[in-house]
Amino acid sequence: MTSPTATGSTWTFNAIGTSWAIDTALPLPSVARDAVAAVVDRFDREWSRFRADSLVSALAAGREASVRAPDDTDAMLSLYDELDAATSGAVNPLVGDALARLGYDARLTLTPSGEPEAAPPWRETLRWGDGELAVARPVTIDVGALGKGRLVDLVLDTVRAHIDGDVVVDGSGDLAARGTPIPVALEHPYDASRAIGVVTVADGALCASAINRRAWGDGLHHVLDARTGAPVRAFAATWALADTALRADALATALFFDGGPELAASWNAHWVRMRTDGRVEWSPGFAGEIFA
Amino acid sequence: MIRTTAVPRPVRVGTALLGVAGIVTLAGCSGGTTSDAAAPVDSAAAPTATSAPSSSAAAGGSTAAGTYKDGTYEATGQYATPESVESIDVTLTIAGDTVTAVEVTGDPQAAESRRYQSEFIGGIADEVVGKKLDEISVTKVAGSSLTSGGFNEAVDTIKTEARA
Question: What residue spans define the domains of chain B?
Answer without folding.
Answer: 2-114, 133-163
